[in-house]
C-alpha cells in the first residue's frame, strides 16, 4: 500500500474517535513511519519476535501538572509492521483503527494491561 493511502486510513481512524475525546488531542502529533527505530523497539519493551504496530511517546494526561510550552506528544503507526500481520486491505483498515484507538488510550493514561482487560 502506498504511504499516502495508509496515511488517509490513519486520519479516517482518528476521525472516528468521538469529538469529545478527540478535542483532548490538541498537542499530539500523529505520524506514519515504515518501521520502528531500534530506540523505539528497546523503549517499548516488546519481544524481538513481536512487531511494534504503534507507539505513544509523551506524558499521559493523567500524569500532567504544570504542563505547558512543551513539544507535542507523538503517536506513530508503523505501516510495514501493520501490513506484515494483515492479508487484506480490510484487515489493514481494521488494524489501523484498532492501533489508533490503542495509542490514543495511552495518551489518556490507560495501560496495556487495562486495555487488554477492556478487550481493546
Can you walk me through this structure?
This protein has 120 residues and is an alpha+beta fold. It has a single domain (3-118), classed as Zincin-like. 48% of the residues lie in helices and 13% in strands. Strands 1-3-2 form a three-stranded mixed sheet. Helix 1 packs across helix 5 (89-107). The radius of gyration is 14 Å and the shape is globular. The two termini are 25 Å apart. The mean pLDDT is 88.
Give a topology summary.
Blueprint: H1 3-15, H2 19-22, E1 28-33, H3 38-44, E2 54-57, E3 73-78, H4 79-85, H5 89-107, H6 112-118
Parallel strand pairs: 1-3
Antiparallel strand pairs: 2-3
CATH architecture, by name, is 2-Layer Sandwich
Q: Into which percent range does the helicity of residues fall? A: 40-55%
CATH topology: Zincin-like
Low-confidence stretches: none
Integer tally of domains: 1
Query: Order of strands across the biggest sheet?
Result: 1-3-2
User: Can you summarize the main beta sheet?
Assistant: 3 strands, mixed
Distance between the termini: 25 Å
SSE run: HHEHEEHHH
Portion of residues in beta strands equals 5-15%
Keywords for this entry:
single chain, 120 residues, alpha+beta, Zincin-like, 3-stranded mixed β-sheet, 6 helices, 3 strands
